[in-house]
Amino acid sequence: MDLLQLRYFRVVARVEHMTKAAEELFIAQPSLSKTISRLEKEIGVPLFERQGRVIRLNKFGKAFLEHVETIFQELEEGQRKVQDMAGLEHGEISLGAATVYWLPDLLHRFQMRYPSVRFRLSQCELAEMPHRLETGACDFCFMPGPFAKPGIQWMRLRTEEILLVVPTTHRLAGEKRVPLSEVAHEAVVIEKAGCGLRDLMETYCLQAGFTLRSAFEIDEPAALFAFVQAQLGVGFTTALMERRVYEHGLTTLHLIPATCQRIFGVAWYSQHYLSQIARAFHHYLIEEVVVEEQEVF
């Protein structure tokens, strides 16, 4: 048994399809099948249930995969430690976020200090983030609040007011502030569930006594403006995006109550080894970003 077999097994277990796994690994499908068969022969039990090229992990495969993941996590941790010992401070920082529009300035300012740093940013749903942190797939995840899971630490970075976005011809466009209840009978353009703002606004609407009526679910915040501009509904955004709202010829309104706010924070796993550059990024978030937030309030 060698690492190549385990790496192949890991990919097949994830995609559950021999042809797709072979394409991802850049090898011929028959070679991949033979490698997996040899691995099963060495272990002494089948690891997959097969239905043509579509395969599923069986109970043996699921148990084995847990140990394989641990092996690769340990190897990645070891690589980080050795790189640190060699003084490779330029390194790479892996990040996860559900919403990314507020991150460019934050990352740019850090990169000005450390020009050689590389960021690897993945967009993912909030529910995925604890697993990504625990497995070491991400050093940090940007999320709106803490997770009640052992070892996962969280820190507030900034708070943004949530604004209502409407076309200039909308019945509310002339108002400065409106009760959230005014949205009760409006079609709403909003991010899909699991992206943070959607879940938050559903909670605020329930507190205001109504259920948010989602007319259009979008994958990216920028698409919001096009849909509202086409008068297909109203939307929500944060004050950070207000300039872009005006660029699209739209109007923003403050919501009552004023507690309609979105919190942005960062989480990390306390048992995961952080490289020198990742620790420097953590200190930067504490010393610069959090201090700025406190000065604003």
Q: Considering DSSP H and I runs of 4 or more, what fraction of the residues is helical?
A: 40-55%
What count of structural domains?
3
Number of helices: 10
Q: How far is the first residue's CA from the last residue's CA?
A: 58 Å
Q: From the 3D coordinates, which CATH architecture of the largest domain would you assign?
A: 3-Layer(aba) Sandwich
Kindly report the CATH topology of the largest domain.
D-Maltodextrin-Binding Protein, domain 2
Radius of gyration, rounded? 24 Å
| Shape category | globular
Kindly name the structural category.
alpha/beta
Average pLDDT confidence is: 87
Low-confidence residue ranges: none
Q: What is the CATH C level class of the largest domain, in words?
A: Alpha Beta
**Secondary structure: number of strands:** 12
- The string of secondary-structure elements, in order, is HHHEEHEHEHEEEEHEHEHEEH
Main β-sheet: number of strands, strand sense, barrel status?
Answer: 10 strands, mixed
Percent of sequence in beta strands: 15-25%
List the helices and strands and how they pair.
Blueprint: H1 3-15, H2 18-25, H3 29-43, E1 48-51, E2 54-57, H4 59-85, E3 92-97, H5 103-113, E4 118-123, H6 129-135, E5 140-143, E6 152-167, E7 177-179, E8 188-191, H7 197-207, E9 214-218, H8 222-229, E10 234-238, H9 242-247, E11 250-256, E12 261-269, H10 276-296
Parallel strand pairs: 3-4, 3-5, 7-11, 8-9, 8-10
Antiparallel strand pairs: 1-2, 5-12, 6-10, 6-11, 6-12
Helix pairs in contact: 1-2, 1-3, 1-4
3D structure, described in words:
- It is a single chain.
- This protein has 297 residues and is an alpha/beta fold.
- The chain folds into 3 domains: 3-81, Arc Repressor Mutant, subunit A; 94-152 and 269-296, 3-Layer(aba) Sandwich (D-Maltodextrin-Binding Protein, domain 2), CATH 3.40.190; 158-262, D-Maltodextrin-Binding Protein, domain 2 (3-Layer(aba) Sandwich), CATH 3.40.190.
- The chain contains 10 helices and 12 strands.
- The chain has helices at 3-15, 18-25, 29-43, 59-85, 103-113, 129-135, 197-207, 222-229, 242-247, 276-296, and strands at residues 48-51, 54-57, 92-97, 118-123, 140-143, 152-167, 177-179, 188-191, 214-218, 234-238, 250-256, 261-269.
- The strands form 2 sheets. Strands 3, 4, 5, 6, 7, 8, 9, 10, 11 and 12 form a 10-stranded mixed beta sheet that branches. Strands 1-2 form a two-stranded antiparallel ribbon.
- Helix 1 crosses helix 4 (59-85).
- The longest helix is centred in the first third of the chain and has 27 residues, at 59-85.
- The chain is globular, with a radius of gyration of 24 Å.
- GO terms for molecular function: DNA binding; DNA-binding transcription factor activity.
- One of its GO terms (cellular component) is protein-DNA complex.
